[in-house]
Amino acid sequence: MSIYVVLGIAGLVVLALSLLVGDLLDGAWDALEADWISTAAIGGFVSAFGFAGAAADGADLATPLTLAIAGGSGVVVAWFAWWLTRLVKDGPSDGTVSISDAVGLRAQVITSIPGEGYGVVRVNVGGHTLQLNASAALPIEAGREVDVTGVLSPTAVNVTEVWRP
Question: Which UniProt keywords apply (predicted)?
């Protein structure tokens, strides 16, 4: 087994460790204040360097050319691993949808809302469809569009019908 294959396997082990305990390992790089260094990038570089070097060595290329191919492959994979981990870590995360997030949005009346009492409306909040109990000052028929104007309880909102001339 060539040294290149050993490096490729070692890089895969580092990549596996970065998936399991990456936050702990990446904490060591924080002292260097180098955001571009990550365990996934190092593992990707070593793995790609090893396997690309093994392939180039198996093709009986000259040593400088083998090292250039291995190094170039390692840099490309390391950059991709760094970019992908930053994309996942720094990406926005959706918080828990709250009934108060529905205030100000349009909703569809599913069950008619009587003048005194509750009906049901469906509202899309941040990509999540919520069905909420709804109360209104005036009766509203099913199928009408309404605006959510306030929160009455954890499961109920106040609505007003969308006026259409």
Answer: Membrane, Transmembrane, Transmembrane helix
pTM of the complete model beyond 0.70: no
Q: How far apart are CA 48 and CA 75, in angstroms?
A: 8
Domains in the chain with CATH codes: 3-90 (no CATH), 99-161 (2.40.50.140)
What is the DSSP secondary structure assignment for residue 1, as one 8-state letter? -
pLDDT tens per residue across span 79-128? 998 888 778 776 666 677 888 889 999 999 999 999 889 999 999 988 88
